Amino acid sequence: MPLPSSPRPAGLPDRIRHWIGGAHADSAGGAVFDVADPVSNAPYAVAAAGGPADVDRAVAAAKAAFTAWSGLGNRERANVLTRVADAVEAREDRLAELESFDSGLPIAQARGQARRAAENFRYFADVIVALGEESYRVGDQQINYVVRTPAGVAGLITPWNTPFMLESWKLAPALAAGCTLVLKPAEWTPLSAGLWPEILTEAGVPAGVVNIVHGIGEVAGQALVDHPDVPLLSFTGSTDTGRHIMRCSADGLKALSMELGGKSPVVVFADADLDAALDSVVFGVFSLNGERCTAGSRVLVERPVYEEFTRRLAERADKVRVGPPADPSTEVGALVHPEHYARVMDYVDIGRREARLVAGGERPGGLPAGNYLRPTVFADVPRDARIFQEEIFGPVVAAAPFDGEAEAVELANATRYGLAAYVWTSDLRRGHRIAAAVASGMVWINSHNVRDLRTPFGGVKDSGLGREGGAHSIDFFSESKIVHVMLGEARTPRFGA
Ligand code: NAD
Prior knowledge:
The protein is α/β, with parallel strands linked by helices. It has 2 domains: 15-260 and 463-481, 3-Layer(aba) Sandwich (Aldehyde Dehydrogenase, Chain A, domain 1); 265-445, Aldehyde Dehydrogenase, Chain A, domain 2. It contains 15 helices and 23 strands. Strands 15-16-17-14-13-19-20 form a 7-stranded mixed sheet, with helices on both faces. Strands 10-9-8-11-12-22 form a 6-stranded mixed sheet, sandwiched between helices. Bound molecules: nicotinamide-adenine-dinucleotide (NAD). The site of nicotinamide-adenine-dinucleotide has 29 residues, from helix 7 and helix 8.
């Protein structure tokens, strides 16, 4: 039996509220905004639209909770984090259902993101108990040691592409490090964040440690950025917003972590395992609806295999199953919002003028409504084309040929972004050479994006600032204080003696 186009999860809330000081709250002025799902594009709920007064209350709650939370031992905080992981895991079905409904992500992939969210908490519980602090001995004369202290009330601002997972990615290390915080989730996808209050309460996170203020970026997000009692901001989102937040943070000299956009190259050499490379290219750019910061959205193929590889890529793209997000067999669901859909469709039109369309480029048959796009492949894309240069953040890939290693590197580096890069070759020495020469924060050789949580994550150039992941995240949410202790005689020049 065909699935209804937009099955509503049972028990869907019609009102999404802030969570401040351990209690649900409406906005001070009662303002709300509509929240729609990307299949019907009809509002199913309203969410509280936070403003400066709400952010102020949330920051005050986080400040009040700081002394007690930051004063806990690492093991005590780790125990709480482990219970959060358990509570997330116990809700895997519900989380996947809500996330998929609200964001349009295929349910099977939303399930994977829910598991990853639990893993983030379990992992940072381990990190914080295992992490030591540095000390430096200077002969018998001096010992210096570093004390890591929680940095204060953190502001967390997250995007809509994998909402709950990206929230967990920041919540877990901030809490592990001993910070209290205010989270501003993305306004297009606030639904799954509504599960945090029950998860955190069940896990025993004290009131005020985590506060959630929903709202429009330019209002609620901006108020958080501007708040004088928030000394650090961890932001994931677009490069333009990141740049704006950096400017606003200059006066307050705020610590910033910026995970921004990407236009990551996949470099396929003729000697690669082309079947494996093809699987990886297709998954790497079309999974999560192509709304993925590390998507391999530029496929550079060595000329002898370019025509064949591009043809096979187009054939596979044609066969990717586009369908309702709630259908477990769906591989590409609905793009998050009609505004974003229109933007992606604009790029498809631009691409038609700039290059050769070899797959997709239109709404799939049988899906007359909803933000659906057939996986789209453009071939022979020139390096100055907008679809080669700009992040599309949808199921659209640009392919181009290259001759030899030097041109491969030149093309790989020919954009303003530098988040991820992927190299396919059977010559490992060449793989290492390309990895060294490509300007990106992360490189995968003979793989798509598979990341151990201990490894640093982040980009260079317009893709960001700083690294998250493992000890890097803990460092960001901590201040390091160095204590110098003289063990011998202090030999002080005797001024004025
Ligand atoms: P966005 O920049 O529009 O919004 C991100 C968040 O910032 C939202 O919560 C939004 O409300 C808030 N915001 C907007 N204006 C603000 C302001 N003036 N002050 C404070 N907050 C403000 O990005 P998006 O469209 O939600 O997300 C897509 C982008 O995120 C893409 O560019 C993608 O590559 C990037 N992204 C990067 C990573 C990474 O780790 N590098 C991961 C996922 C997504």
